[in-house]
Structure formats: structure tokens, C-alpha cells
């Protein structure tokens, strides 16, 4: 028996921003398929509207990503965007707030606030996460309304991108459900 599957059916960026108060995860050059799959799994579990990934220099949806996501990519809209900073500008025009996850002092321009400081309820939210190793690119960080950071109390300087995504997405879920 042989099966043939077509290319993954990506959503349009506009589909991610439609509807009332969308929750979108935007990944700035995340290249590890395991991280993409894990983030998609968490995004689907918190009922996110979808995930935006760049067209270039980023992991795309493959069988490995589908497996790592435990099939979540079959139930979650994933869109490829030409330019992440432009997508964030489009999201802001659609009424969304864009929050970039950044290690304290990593952006070089602005000091991030605590991840639990913003009110994520009552508007669309785009959570922007940077690549493994280098984080958010400067233009993408500048396109965010606010930078947020998780507290790091141990000796390691950062969480992996999929762990950070999980922590912040569940904070957003709690905040939107009215459980501070």
C-alpha cells in the first residue's frame, strides 16, 4: 500500500487575525522542527487561533513537526508570512496587542516587563517568540507593543523557546479566563 500526501495547507495571515480577540503565536525564525511542533501543540491546547511562521529561515510544517505536535497542526491554523515585522504591523492595525518574549536586557532597546503584568483580556493578542539562541530580531522586537520576560531565578540564562511559549500561553489563558 502506498499513500501520497499533498503539501501542508497553510492558512493566510489574514485568517489568523479574523474573528473576535484572536490569540496568535508568531515565531521569529524558530528553526527546530521539534520546537515548532511543541509550540503548535501548546497553542492548540490553549485554543489559540493559530501560529504565524516566516516563509524563510524557519521550520515549516513537515511530518516531523506533525509528530512533535501530536497532530495539533491538523487542528490549528498555521500561516506563513513574508515579513514578520510587517505581519505584526498588520495585527496591530487589526486591533491586536503584540507582546514579544525577550530575556531581560536581550533586546538592547527596551526593558521587558514581567510576563504576568499585561492584561491579555479584551483584545486580540499576538505572542511573539524569537529563535533558539538569538531571540527576537531588532526590527521584530521594535514592532511589538511591549516586551515581556519570564523570571529566571536559577543559574541558566534562558528557557527553551517551547518552554517559554508554554509558560506565557498558559498565563494568557488564565488571564483571559479571569483567573489572575
Description:
The termini are far apart. 45% of the residues are buried. Helix 2 packs parallel to helix 6 (161-176). The longest helix is centred in the C-terminal third of the chain and has 16 residues, at 161-176. Helices cover 31% and strands 19% of the residues. Strand 1 (23-28), helix 2 (33-45) and strand 2 (50-54) form a beta-alpha-beta unit. The protein has helices at residues 13-17, 33-45, 63-68, 84-93, 138-143, 161-176; strands at residues 23-28, 50-54, 77-81, 96-101, 113-114, 124-130, 146-149. It is an alpha/beta fold and 180 residues long. It has a seven-stranded parallel sheet, sandwiched between helices. The mean pLDDT is 92.
How are the secondary structure elements laid out?
Elements: H1 13-17, E1 23-28, H2 33-45, E2 50-54, H3 63-68, E3 77-81, H4 84-93, E4 96-101, E5 113-114, E6 124-130, H5 138-143, E7 146-149, H6 161-176
Parallel strand pairs: 1-2, 1-6, 2-3, 4-6, 4-7, 5-7
Helix pairs in contact: 2-6
A few lines on this structure:
With 180 residues, this protein is α/β, with parallel strands linked by helices. It contains 6 helices and 7 strands, in the order αβαβαβαβββαβα. The protein has a 7-stranded parallel sheet, with helices on both faces.
